[in-house]
């Protein structure tokens, strides 16, 4: 195994969901097994230490940092106890828009509406200023518990959509991923009114009190991830700055110390721009993580740090994924591409 440079691991959730169409969840059992394997393979250090090493021109070989994107509540309730058991530091990049209202990210909203059992209207239309989207569920409008359970293992990476509900879910993931923030919320409001689907708490974000508690002992750090998780490249410079600066200010008021690390929402090369990087730097962030596979070396850009996204792998598969060809694998999640998860 090549230990050149360092690796940054990217997680989202540690939990056992009924479904995981975006492949964002790692079970607590697999997470613990992964950390045990990681401890044998590399020395885990805080992300801030890795970034400081990079700025000094020397990244320690054989090191690793652990990160989480989004700020799901299971980060404190499921992931944190396991991290503390192994004494491994991590950074959680948190959004702030839904920290107190209990609402979900759009991909979780779409899961709740289309992939949960229950009756939906057979047809509907979403409308915005210069376009629209037709929903046609036909016979799939009435989806029983048994039928929904039969497709529990379906993910966005599958090439076949088994029902009109799955097709609508995929197409709306793509549509909402591309949409500016204001249009995205307009369409989500229309979808909720059309569906009448019940709200839930299983996919909620951490509250401010939970963020403060999570970071209190210093083992787990909090980083910025914007207010609303937009594709920053799709927004104006003014909106980008508001998303980045307001998120940072809110998080600093919660944890009571400077927030120095940032993660670009979605994080592929298509999701942020050189202008975005300039705003992140000007906002006082010292480094930022992208969602592109690769090692971190002395030549890495501190505002485009590569990461390796982790799936729900058992220990053997985790080891294989991190060592295949001596390099971390997989590009990050991308909602807008049908061949990849969000």
Task: Give a quick set of tags describing it.
2 domains; alpha/beta; TIM Barrel; 342 residues; globular; two-stranded parallel ribbon; six-stranded parallel sheet; 16% strand; single chain; 11 helices
- How many beta strands in the DSSP annotation? 14
Helix amount, in percent?
25-40%
Question: How far do the termini sit from each other?
Answer: 29 Å
Number of helices, counting only DSSP H or I runs of 4 residues or more:
11
Task: Give structural notes.
- The chain is of the alpha/beta class.
- The chain folds into two domains: 6-102 and 202-326, TIM Barrel, CATH 3.20.20; 106-195, no CATH class.
- 37% of the residues lie in helices and 16% in strands.
- It contains eleven helices and 14 strands.
- Strands 1, 4, 5, 6, 11 and 14 form a six-stranded parallel sheet that branches. A two-stranded parallel ribbon has the order 2-3.
- Helix 1 (28-41) runs parallel beside helix 3 (74-86) and helix 1 (28-41) packs across helix 11 (315-323).
- The chain is globular and about 60 Å long.
- The chain starts with 5 loop residues before the first strand and ends in a 19-residue tail after the last helix.
Task: Give the structure's gist in a few sentences.
The chain has 342 residues and is an alpha/beta fold. It has 11 helices and 14 strands. The protein folds into 2 domains: 6-102 and 202-326, TIM Barrel; 106-195, no CATH class.
């Amino acid at each position: 195994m090549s230990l050149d440079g360092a690796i940054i691991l990217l997680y989202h959730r540690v939990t056992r969901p009924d479904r995981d169409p975006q492949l964002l969840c790692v079970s607590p059992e697999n997470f613990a097994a992964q950390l045990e394997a990681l401890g044998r393979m590399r020395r885990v250090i805080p992300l801030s230490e890795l970034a400081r090493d990079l700025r000094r021109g020397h990244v320690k070989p054989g090191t690793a940092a652990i990160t989480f994107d989004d700020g799901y509540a299971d980060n404190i309730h499921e992931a944190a106890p396991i991290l503390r058991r192994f004494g491994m530091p991590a950074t959680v990049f948190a959004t702030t828009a839904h920290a107190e209202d209990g609402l979900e990210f759009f991909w979780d909203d779409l899961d709740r509406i289309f992939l949960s059992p229950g009756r939906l209207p057979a047809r509907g239309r979403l409308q915005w200023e210069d376009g629209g989207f037709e929903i046609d569920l036909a016979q799939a409008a009435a989806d029983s518990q048994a039928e929904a359970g039969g497709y529990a293992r379906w993910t966005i990476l599958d090439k076949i959509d088994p029902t009109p509900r799955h097709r609508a879910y995929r197409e709306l993931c793509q549509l909402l991923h591309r949409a500016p923030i204001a249009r995205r919320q307009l369409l989500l409001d229309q979808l909720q009114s059309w569906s009448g689907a019940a709200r839930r708490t299983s996919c909620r974000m951490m509250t401010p009190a939970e963020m403060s508690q999570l970071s209190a002992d210093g083992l787990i750090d909090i980083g910025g991830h914007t207010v609303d998780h937009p594709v920053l490249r799709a927004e104006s410079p003014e909106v980008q700055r508001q998303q980045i600066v307001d998120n940072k200010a809110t998080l600093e008021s919660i944890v009571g110390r400077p927030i120095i690390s940032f993660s670009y929402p979605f994080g592929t090369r298509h999701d942020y721009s050189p202008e975005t990087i300039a705003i992140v730097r000007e906002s006082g962030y010292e480094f930022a993580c992208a969602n592109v596979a690769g090692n971190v070396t002395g030549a890495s850009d501190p505002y485009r740090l590569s990461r390796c996204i982790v799936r729900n792998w058992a220990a053997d598969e985790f080891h294989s994924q991190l060592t295949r060809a001596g390099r971390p694998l997989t590009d990050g999640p991308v909602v807008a591409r049908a061949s990849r998860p969000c």
